[in-house]
Amino acid sequence: MDTASQPGELTLPLPSTESALAASVDSCAQSGLPIAFLHELWLAADAESCDLAREEFCSALAAVGAKCHYGLPTETHPTPAQEAAFYRALRLPDLALAHACALGREPAWQRFLHLYRAPLTQAAIAITGSATLGHDLADSLYAELFGLTERGGQRKSPLASYSGRGSLLGWLRTTLAQRHIDHHRRTHRETPLDDLDAAAPTSTAAPVPAELDRLTHAVARILEQLVPDDRFLLASYFLDQHTLLQIARLLRVHEATVSRKLKRLTAELRKQLLRDLQSGGLSKRAAEEALGADPRDLEINLRALLQTSQTTPFSDQTTRAHPATLQPRASE
Fold this sequence. Notes:
Layout: H1 18-24, H2 35-44, H3 54-68, H4 80-89, H5 92-102, H6 106-128, H7 131-146, E1 150-151, E2 154-155, H8 168-189, H9 209-224, H10 228-239, H11 244-251, H12 255-279, H13 284-291, H14 302-306
Antiparallel strand pairs: 1-2
Helix pairs in contact: 5-6, 6-7, 6-8, 9-12, 11-12, 12-13
């Protein structure tokens, strides 16, 4: 039970253990948090059942707090109250279990396997799409988490990096998915070239110059036939990079009206271009391929074709905007 709302007011009576606590939380003493509060967190984490001592748990808390800067911007100096709020928000039982497992405590590992072995195996099967591969992936992750690799005479387990800010199960699933991706990339790189017998991708040939020439003339012809309203709308959106909202304000219409107008206009332009190209002798497929050409390959000045000196705004309203308000602007 929480005995106070502010960490500085925590006065949990523990006369028989006060001296032992003082010796076991040296790693957190610099935070200025009351020893009774740290003891409360240790109890809330049920760390003792994982064979995790108070000193070890406080060291883990201090490491997480320093690593995450207590959930605050790096330039902010945390107060004891902010540190206490950060620690309270952690998933303390998950944190204690993860760090006890990282230290190789048997009770912690028994609980870990009881809680997570089945869900992780199911997740691995779902990721790999195979029961056999899923079990192999899960087993390899367990071995890594147990810390079979020793560095400098000490066991190193990824569980030591768990911060307690999210659920341990979510962290494990994310780690599992990442290990699967790493394995795929590694084995993909190591596949001998002789074993790769994939068919060459079908190349989409760029339109021949004659088709590009036809497309250039078709685009120029159709854009020249547009009414000033449509030329202004296309220039504002595609060339001047104005947003729908900016154009709507310029035209004094609703943003949805501009969106619908642009959609109808571009669809109609595409239909006209297809008809024009087909009437020029291209098949429907060749015309569609020509429309997929990079616009930079067209020898055409789109801005010159779309530029208009006078225009009358389209509007669904009875009140129409003055033409002088419709000139393109760089910013709203």
